[in-house]
Design a protein that fits this description.
47% helix, Enolase-like, domain 1, alpha+beta, 3-stranded antiparallel beta sheet, elongated, homodimer, Beta-Lactamase, DNA-binding, 3 domains, Arc Repressor Mutant, subunit A, 12 helices, 5-stranded antiparallel beta sheet
Chain lengths: 340, 340
Amino acid sequence: MGAEISERKKKILQIVVDEYIETATPVSSKAITQKHLTEVSSATVRSELAALEDQGYLIQFHTSGGRIPSPKAYRLYIDELMERSELSSAETEFIRSSFERRAASAESIVRSVADVISELTDYTSVALSGQSEETIGNIGLFPCGDSRALLLIVTDLRIFKDSFIALPEGMRDEEVEKMSRTLQNIFVGKRMDRAREAEEEAMQALAAYRQICREVLDAIFAYTDRREVVLSGGSKSLLHPEYDDVGKIRTFLSLVEDEEEIGKLLSDGTSVKIGVKIGSDGGVPEDCSIVTASYSVDGRQIGTYGVLGPVRMDYAKVVSVLESVGDVLEKVIKNSNGGK
Amino acid sequence: MGAEISERKKKILQIVVDEYIETATPVSSKAITQKHLTEVSSATVRSELAALEDQGYLIQFHTSGGRIPSPKAYRLYIDELMERSELSSAETEFIRSSFERRAASAESIVRSVADVISELTDYTSVALSGQSEETIGNIGLFPCGDSRALLLIVTDLRIFKDSFIALPEGMRDEEVEKMSRTLQNIFVGKRMDRAREAEEEAMQALAAYRQICREVLDAIFAYTDRREVVLSGGSKSLLHPEYDDVGKIRTFLSLVEDEEEIGKLLSDGTSVKIGVKIGSDGGVPEDCSIVTASYSVDGRQIGTYGVLGPVRMDYAKVVSVLESVGDVLEKVIKNSNGGK
DNA sequence: GTTGGCACTCTTTCCTTTCAAGTGCCAAAA
DNA sequence: TTTTGGCACTTGAAAGGAAAGAGTGCCAAC
């Protein structure tokens, strides 16, 4: 734990991690002195490396194979060592334009966030919406002919949800409309996650439609708990050299296709702004890392997004992208609401 | 072309294909006589195999490596040789219940078709909706508070729900509702692909809302051309032994993630009921096969669905599943419309 | 036309050798 | 006390080669 670690060790550790992230091959003492730390000899570095290995920061597979960072080293790297890279202006522009283009047609901004992150980082990205504290902007039933109606809820973040409700035989469109209006009176302006508090009130107001009242309310409350997982670039991570063998690829893909599992992984660390899980901590599978960020607008948390990839991930890049995306996202949403 | 092929050759070819599909290894003369054709000697079979190879039905990689079917052989197999397997009653039950469960909550039946096919065949499945002759069940604008409304179209097969329309400053909800009603009068019951025919009529009826009329109509027509590609079990095909090498996996996955390309592949063979593309014909990548089926209800084509996998695919199983899914689908849709 | 027999070809597997990379350690230098 | 050059040692990866196994092609006999 409290083992001291000298400045020079930190410097060396940083070089090792940087180098390993870039080359994906174990780093040797020679490589360090040749490329980065020319003022000392390789023998010196070697003894430092041996010490770092003793302290659990480095791992050596074979006696002649250089060393790679341990999860512990990655953690230190992320917390202290790495140099965040600014995104290029082309990249920030790309983020902005992606969101704006979507905002017009938007089914949900979640999709586009996932796409943008995956595009910029070259890793698989994951977005989770639904733990958000949105308020209900409109709610209504939309009749669809064959004894069904579509229940629609639009929130102030223009994320909306829908599901079908079976209507009682012979219910007329006018009645459905009336019911919609009642729902609007009750729920518009309420926070999504507090919709349940209006249950009693709604039951009474909708007494005339007892038959379907329950169904509608349950559907509304179901939205409350619903989390939507969106994934982008599922195979992008596979382009990285650690996935050089069929078994690893299959493991990774089966994780990627398991929405429920992904949802769990993402929703765990929602309290911190940027969280990183490495190796097999926090349920992340061996050899995988997940970097998550949770975004909020005006203090309301609107979603969690993340990047899923190998442990040897370009954390500096990923963190920069996640932060930029968060900033732009916040601006875009604020503008579109402010322009009301 | 017209090269004759004896009954015994056909029998042998069938055995080769069956065996290869099952084992994924080249088939030898010995294996044939031991397992299936015990009445002749391996030498006899050998000469037949040599003849079949001359005619282009079989391929031999090394002189001591057995033989595998050529695309030409697969085609003959599919057309004449294969024995369709009936689905088990558990399987048909699975199809039926999947559709019914979905029909109640249905976002879109396309999703569930893709899931079912992938589940039953263990291959990646693809579903394409949109060249369909759906009819509009309801249409309307759903106000969302901040000078915007959601344009919603529900057809008998899916929901279009991702066009926001900017409303003119100061437009009241009542006006939006009125406009919705007008749209309903014009479009409900119309076929999606013929919505454009009502353009003139709509322009006149909506003259009062000139400002946004154009925008709404354009959004409607934009939906018209939209084809939705749904994919299920993207990595399922990878469980098969031909994908034993990283390059092949990447090729396959990059195809799978290219929605546009998939859409093209699927929409090509829409005229036939069941179509098969093998190897690299019709734009299918080398080493891939795609089996497609187009389904219709009451003569209206409602979609194209398919299976994407290695050339060595269990065609008998796949074709059986596609046919059964088609049958059940037709029944389910007819019932749900008939029960209106 | 069919069969058994046998030589031939080609892949797969396993072993051995060699080569290069990188470390660990030590004694000398700073 | 820290740093350094030198050198022996370990280990994996690459290259070569022998042996084994699978399957065919062909031929002469039935």
